[in-house]
Specification:
- GO terms for molecular function: acyltransferase activity, transferring groups other than amino-acyl groups; serine-type carboxypeptidase activity.
- It comes from Medicago truncatula (Barrel medic).
- By secondary structure, the chain is an alpha/beta fold.
- The strands form three sheets. Strands 1, 2, 3, 4, 7, 8, 10, 11, 13, 14, 15 and 16 form a twelve-stranded mixed β-sheet that branches. The protein has a two-stranded antiparallel sheet with strand order 5-6.
Amino acid sequence: MMGWRCSCIVLVTLMLLPLMVYSGSIVKNLPGFDGELPFKLETGYIGVGEGAKVQMFYYFVESQRNPFVDPILLWFVGGPGCSALSAFFFENGPLTMEDDYSGILPKLKLNPYGWTHMLNMMYIDIPVGTGFSYSETQEGYYSSDTLWVDHTYSFLQKWILDHPKFSSNPFYIGGGSYSGFTTGPLVQKVYDGNIARHKPHINIKGYVLASPAVDLYQHVNDQVLYAYHMNLIPKELYESLEENCKGDYVNIDPNNTKCVSDYEAYSELVRYINEQQILEPLCITTPALNQIIRQPVQDDQEFSCRSYYHLLVDIWANDENVRKALRVREGTKGEFLRCNKTLAYTQTLTDVVEYYRNLTNANILALIYGSDLDMSIPQLGTQVWIKSFNMSTHDKWRAWFVEGQVAGFTEIYKMKEDHYLTYVALKGAGHVAQTFKPKEVYNMIKRWFSFSLI
């Protein structure tokens, strides 16, 4: 009798738990977009951490194809501290911003290459202090890689409980740049949670990485090799750097004068190179420039730098009507910044390669892609750590095409049983690829999620 009584208590608790989770609101109109949104957008908060005092703001866009069957992709933005709106408008969301800024409120238009054409897309303002996420206590604003993972796992559990109709959808986790440090550990945590029969079950099927940072030191060291390969520095300097610094450009001994001198020469040569995309101009944003951006663009004028368009997000998200439309809680956020660089954040995960190595033994799929013009996280370094897993080659290095033109190159490796890791190099793209080559990345994503060859 006692066992029956305890089971009832557990059952009642599970039945009541979804009622304690904020379900979010459906947003039908957004300032800057003409008419009703032709897709279903939900925004809201979910409390995580001790006492659920950390309130994570999220955007969930249902697939425009078959939302209760199509996969869910949780997509992280890098930084740390860059808002989900950065991806929503400039990477893979259903909307983008018009080029002809009128000087009032940026106009929005449909993104022809938005991934919501075939995926349910979830975005979170994480870590706390990013975007519209906030903490009810000052202590809650202190965050780290470890808390990023823990908070997201708690968020997903609560969100799934509150959205049972999506509980059986295939679930994928992905992101670009810095989020490579947190994606692998999070996928591992979700996968292990499923093995341990944690409830609710999250139907994890794989992960997607774009120009991922996985080793704090490796990508810095790889930048020197990349600069040499791309003829940004001469052969003589590169050979001297290798000899005098022994390939370590992070922990340079100040007493090693030859290494210090060589690295200073290297730094001066690449000083004015745009690491995000080496063929595009290097642009510095300042408060004065921010004011210039806020002026109307003339009919025959365009912003000279891609990064200038990013400032439009700040203008849009700081508008009172926008915040009301998104259901942002009043008084919880001061000035919105696309990337908040003042977070109280500690990097606790500096090398996560082993997480991805462990995941080759899990029953999941993996897509990792990089860009040939990205110097910030060179793809040659990504290829090195992938090849260190010693997986067998399923489909050797070859070109892949979009509309009859070479869009890049790909190689597919076999992991456990019938699960594969697909590596893709985007031609002519920067960091991260979909910002620079949206059509090509859209085709790549569409093919990969349909289990066809890239």
